[in-house]
Amino acid sequence: MVAFEAVTKRFGRDDENQFTALDGIDLSVARGAITGIIGRSGAGKSTLIRLVNGLERATSGRVVVDGVEVGGLSESGLRDLRREIGMIFQHFNLLSSRTAFENVALPLEIAGLPAKAIRDKVGPLLDLVGLGDKSNRYPSELSGGQKQRIGIARALATSPKLLLSDEATSALDPETTQSILDLLKRINAELGLTVLLITHEMEVVKTIASDVAVIDRGRIVEKGRTFDVFTDPKHETTRALLSGLAGAKLPEAIARKLAATPQAVSRTVVRVTFFGETAQQPLVSRLIQELGSEVNIIAGTIDEIAGEPYGSLVIAYSATPEVLARAERFYRQTGLQTEVLGYVA
Ligand SMILES: Nc1ncnc2c1ncn2[C@@H]1O[C@H](COP(=O)(O)OP(=O)(O)OP(=O)(O)O)[C@@H](O)[C@H]1O
């Protein structure tokens, strides 16, 4: 649906003051999928998304949306393209002097639709986002989540093929975020809309994006299925971004006691990751049996990434050679992914 081919974007006129915001981006966004772009502040996420609707032009390379190269479009071509692309924002960008209905109607008025056609379109859209009864309310009378629902209805008014989301849930509390993500997921499934979202919130990507790309200082450093990238991050930036996710961190009290090498009477601390088929099996009880030694469970989470089950358990057991050999054998047989985090006395 969207392809970035060797895209570079530089800001600034003369050579000395030039800043390279994007550097050789190759990325393809699958039709009908929800794709997340994550990265730190200033990594280039907004610039990337602004190239898609032609608010910025690439310095070199091509941005292709639904077969059309954005860089080659005239002003009227860009207007046509923008009708195919809906956009939602962190701060909703609603017009305060217009009611919910009038905000959603705006893109249709601009497109020149007659009043009756506008009414026929806006009513169902307000129902779709669950705000059919708030049609005459002004933005100041709506909650953050309701404002974003109006933003989503407005973005869908011209029946776009692509929805761009720029930190759409970053100003919302976790519960409201969840309800907006549920709505986006439903729209994606029911309307077959392709969604490209940028966010610094890993939870958002984990919850709804099937695919993810990690951007760091203007370059894509990692990309793939969200489940694969989140369960086995390869790049240091990805690891750092994911370290804040629930369950990724060791409890502080244990982390402080952890030594890098075995000491006298030590126990080894291991993170065991369960995913795919292994997430469904009673492997913990089997592991305890196989080791024939006490196992302490230190931390653990069972969760879903992009709809697939995933578990992470931090355990400690005796670091004697016999127990370690039995553990190794068990991990080999079961295909469990493990990581030795350190040793405690
Ligand atoms: N018009 C501009 N002129 C000069 N530099 C710019 C311009 N727009 C963006 N930049 C620079 O490009 C880099 C990438 O900015 P961008 O807004 O794309 O990052 P971001 O990942 O979206 O950050 P954030 O999460 O903070 O919004 C930043 O260093 C920014 O200062």
UniProtKB/TrEMBL annotation:
A GO molecular-function descriptor: ATP binding
One Pfam entry name: NIL
Signal sequence region: none
Keywords: Amino-acid transport, ATP-binding, Cell membrane, Membrane, Nucleotide-binding, Translocase, Transport
This protein's record includes keyword Electron transport: no
SUPFAM superfamilies the UniProt entry points to: ACT-like, P-loop containing nucleoside triphosphate hydrolases
Keyword Nucleotide-binding: yes
Domain ABC transporter: 2-242
Family according to the record: Belongs to the ABC transporter superfamily.
Protein name per Swiss-Prot or TrEMBL: ATP-binding cassette domain-containing protein
Higher taxonomy: Bacteria, Pseudomonadati, Pseudomonadota, Alphaproteobacteria, Hyphomicrobiales
